[in-house]
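Researcher: I need the complex structure. Ligand is EPS. Inputs:
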Amino acid sequence: MSSSFGDRVKISIFGQSHSEAIGVVIDGLPVGEEIDLEAAQRFLDRRAPGKNAYSTPRKEGDQVRVVSGLFDSKTCGAPICAMIENTNTRSKDYAQLKDMPRPGHADFTAEIKYHGFQDYRGGGHFSGRLTAPLCFAGAVCLQILERRGISIGAHILSIHEQKDKSFDAVYITKEELAEVVSKEFPTIEDGAGEEMKAIIQKAREEGDSVGGVIECVAIGLPVGIGEPMFDGLESKLSSIVFAIPAVKGIEFGEGFGVATLFGSQNNDLFYIEETGKIKTKTNHHGGSLGGISSGMPLVIRTAFKPTPSISKNQATVSLEKGKNTTLSVTGRHDPCIVPRAVPCVEAAMAIALLDLYELFQ
Ligand SMILES: Cc1cc2nc3c(=O)[nH]c(=O)nc-3n(C[C@H](O)[C@H](O)[C@H](O)COP(=O)(O)O)c2cc1C
Ligand SMILES: C=C(O[C@@H]1CC(C(=O)O)=C[C@@H](OP(=O)(O)O)[C@H]1O)C(=O)O
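Model: Output:
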């Protein structure tokens, strides 16, 4: 399996949902960078399962243990290795799923690809649980980026058909980002958040699940981050964001909306600010021109599908018997992935941006 990302700052994620531990090795970080492990832990806590009614009931402390790579709290040139124990596994929930693949999950494709040798318990290496080490790596990268004047924050833009307000793609500030990120249910408008919680609760009661969209933004980027073709901002960010399980779409700036605009509507017009800085009046391009940062806020929207494991009866097959059958998934599942995935998208963006920033240096 290939679970590594990055050219300068490289991460490699290991473990399975029900193995002894999961973790990440981070290589190529700039040296002498102080890493506040308590702040990193707080970042991970935003994703941790088992904390509220719209999360899986599986309770994990997600305490990170850094076993190497920091000396006197600073990056020292050696790779950081961080481990997170799996403490609350219940593998019996998965006994029948080896034979009857869940519609929408990776059971079927993993079974065929790995000839039945894959660890199917808890989704194995395909589990959303693997976003815990992704968040640790992201938290480390975020701290380094903050020191270079770059801030990242995300919010829930929609759940099912309920929408929150969008970020102001031109004038979004660091303070606004910090405020939304500090919320337990991160929406800009609290009323929209309450409606979303009710939608998730209803889906859960009906044995169903819902999806949604996360909007994430980076501000303070200098002009020039991103390499040609395959290593442009869009390419790099898409590649890491699609590593988050259940992501099915990503948009930059106006995204799919550009298809219905005229050039005169979509072009972002340049002007010179009093400071002498060149900016654009609008931000349909979402901060990326030619895959290179323009200095405007970098705006992405990520679509998450509804959680595949639901208790409604659904058609599947028995692989052993070679027969059609039906399945109602039991066990502990998120009725909606989106609320816990907010820091995952921030983390993915931070890792990709630090990797590209180090090339830009
Ligand atoms: C934070 C997080 C939590 C998730 N929780 C669940 C879950 O409880 N049950 C489930 O079936 N899928 C869950 N998923 C999604 C599956 O892991 C994912 O759909 C599956 O691995 C198949 O991958 P794909 O959807 O990207 O194709 C979660 C994903 C994330 C990011
Ligand atoms: C444990 C986490 O989420 C898990 C993600 C997940 C999946 O299929 O992705 C399925 C469930 O696993 P289990 O059946 O072992 O409880 C979730 O609880 C986590 O995010 O830390």
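Model: Summary of the prediction. The chain has eight helices and 18 strands.
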